[in-house]
Please model this.
Amino acid sequence: MKKIYKLILGSIVFVTSVFQLHAATVPTFYGKLVFHRYSDYDAWDSKLYLYNFTTQQTTLLGTNWKIDHMMNGHFSPDGKWLTFMGVNSGQHYGDAWDVYAWKVGSSELPINLTQGNNKRDEDPKFIDNQRIIFKQNGDLKIVKMTDRTITYVTQNGWDIEESMPYPMVNTTQILYAKGAGNNSRVFSIDQSGAYDTQLTNIASYYPVWWQGSRFLYVRWYSSTNAHDQIYAYDMANKQNTRLPFNSINYDTSDPAPLDQRYMVVSLAGQTGSRGGYDLYIADSLSSNVWPLPVNSNLNELGAFYTPY
Ligand SMILES: [Ca+2]
Ligand SMILES: [Ca+2]
Ligand SMILES: [Ca+2]
Model:
């Protein structure tokens, strides 16, 4: 009886250890991650980097582009183009923000899609391989890369501030954040400007389409704990899920899906921090996170992934 008990206990311990060992293994990815690094948003010193998962090499972009404060990079679905925001060299003021597109890996200079308009152009995201949705003077607009024609999604100016648009793939819906600071809420709206729908009711922002009817977003833990937390929301059944790797003691921000399970996130103040925000791979099904070999004492933020 005792022997059998020991045998069963031994098997359980063995199986549990194997499971934990397996669960704790860093998942393998191929392709590229774009991210930015700055000392402070207001320091005009942001730089864009590409991290190659295969070679684990990090490349600084745009040393000869004459563009300052580059941030918020996002790849086209085919991985051939990168859009981002920045200012022409030395133009360190809000209305100098422009939206650019660069042919990934080429020696060509990025195209400035909003050149010389003296408007604040921010938060670009590819809808498809041709069109980019972005924020211009507090409104959501869509620019066609080929001829730079612009269409409006919203047109109420700064009276109502729409930010951080993100397309729901295979639909005409756009996720975005309406309002600013603690009044920010995640909404969805059609590319035509119709069907404006509120989806969250606590300070929340940074929606990112994930899979099917699900998207990731960032919100406060509670009205008295403003640490960023990453949640998943399913529009089909209105189910809201706080992902298990969040901590109520520090910010867990800027989710960038890698696949239907893993994502890259920015953590600030966690054990082992290199300083400021650092980039980690996070598991949506456990509390496991693994640091990427790119972190520094500055802030690493705004990651996005392409498998290409
Ligand atoms: Ca501009
Ligand atoms: Ca507006
Ligand atoms: Ca850091």
Q: What stands out?
A: The chain has one helix and 24 strands. The chain has one domain: 20-306.
